[in-house]
């Protein structure tokens, strides 16, 4: 059974209690610092101020990124990998810091959403991608090439991932699809590994980690989203409406995972070759 630990608070402070090199995989979807008076969005077809929450207002985003990434490096195992999701608003800062701190950048995964929300503005292209940095401490990192190939219908997986955006299961504004996290965890970790999400949000990473028999540690600074994650991951008893929706999704994903593992059994896993 997976060990699940959820903590409410600042991830930079909370990570200090973790032992060095104790985490096998880190997935992080940090704040993009897009909230405040200077940023606009659309609501019900009208222009409105963009305010995702106080957690998305950061005075010095570059210093903030360096501080939390430094802690991630400290707790990441020598064979582990760090996956950081973002958009053009925050991704350049993250890339510079990864190089500055001496990490080996493995890939820049492009998540393409064919069904991305149309753009009302007519002065730029409609955003339909998100970027994911993949990095490690050295070239000796865990990567399940066979699993990646199985997920990709027997073909070598490329760094362009076509995954539809999904209707959010909670009120969190930047909730990721479980399918995206499932792919990352299957490729970059094994059953029983320790997974860390320093910006847990509504708990998507924890839901997938639990389903795939990984241990999970999640940090969330917003009490509202922390409470939602506890319900969604099953730490506390959820309300009837939410548990029905969650169970339906979990049953669907359990069947998908069983099919993937069945396919994997037909492959002869090659010895891991680190390059």
What is the compact description of this entry?
The protein has eight helices and ten strands. The chain is of the alpha/beta class. The chain has one domain: 3-Layer(aba) Sandwich (Rossmann fold), CATH 3.40.50.150.
What is the fold's blueprint, element by element?
Layout: E1 4-8, H1 11-14, E2 23-28, E3 40-43, E4 46-49, H2 61-75, E5 76-86, H3 91-100, E6 104-112, E7 129-136, H4 145-151, E8 160-162, H5 178-188, E9 194-197, H6 204-211, E10 215-220, H7 223-233, H8 240-265
Parallel strand pairs: 1-10, 2-5, 2-9, 6-8, 9-10
Antiparallel strand pairs: 3-4, 5-7, 6-7
Helix pairs in contact: 2-3, 5-6
Describe the structure.
With 275 residues, this protein is of the alpha/beta class. It has one domain (4-265): 3-Layer(aba) Sandwich (Rossmann fold). Helix content is 33%, strand content 22%. It has 8 helices and 10 strands. It has helices at 11-14, 61-75, 91-100, 145-151, 178-188, 204-211, 223-233, 240-265, and strands at residues 4-8, 23-28, 40-43, 46-49, 76-86, 104-112, 129-136, 160-162, 194-197, 215-220. The strands form 2 sheets. The protein has an 8-stranded mixed sheet, with helices on both faces. A two-stranded antiparallel sheet has the order 3-4. A hairpin with a 2-residue loop joins strand 3 and strand 4. Helix 2 (61-75) crosses helix 3 and helix 5 crosses helix 6. The two termini are 33 Å apart. Mean pLDDT is 85; it is low at 39-43 and 268-275.
């Amino acid at each position: 059974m997976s060990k699940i630990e959820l903590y409410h608070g600042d991830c930079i402070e909370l990570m200090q209690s973790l032992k060095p090199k104790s985490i096998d995989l880190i997935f992080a979807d940090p704040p993009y610092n897009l909230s405040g008076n200077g940023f606009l969005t659309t609501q019900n077809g009208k222009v409105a101020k963009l305010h995702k929450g106080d957690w998305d207002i950061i005075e010095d985003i570059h210093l903030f990124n360096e501080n939390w990434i430094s802690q991630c490096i400290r707790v990441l195992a020598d064979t582990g990998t760090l996956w950081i999701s973002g958009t053009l608003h925050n991704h350049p800062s993250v890339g510079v810091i990864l190089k500055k701190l001496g990490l080996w950048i493995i890939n820049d995964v492009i998540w393409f959403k064919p069904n991305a929300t149309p753009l009302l503005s007519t002065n730029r292209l409609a955003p339909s991608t998100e970027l994911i940095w993949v990095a490690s401490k050295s070239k000796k990192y865990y990567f399940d090439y066979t699993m990646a190939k199985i997920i990709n219908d027997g073909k070598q997986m490329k760094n362009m991932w076509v995954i539809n955006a999904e209707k959010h299961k909670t009120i969190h504004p930047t909730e990721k699809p479980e399918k995206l996290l499932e792919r990352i965890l299957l490729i970059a970790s094994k059953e029983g590994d320790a997974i860390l999400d320093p910006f847990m949000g509504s708990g998507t990473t924890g839901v997938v980690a639990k389903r795939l028999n990984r241990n999970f540690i999640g940090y969330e600074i917003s009490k509202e989203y922390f409470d939602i994650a506890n319900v969604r991951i099953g730490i506390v008893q959820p309300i009837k409406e939410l548990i029905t929706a969650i169970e339906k999704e979990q049953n669907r994903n359990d069947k998908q995972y069983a099919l993937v593992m069945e396919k994997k059994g037909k492959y002869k896993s090659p010895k891991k070759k680190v390059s």
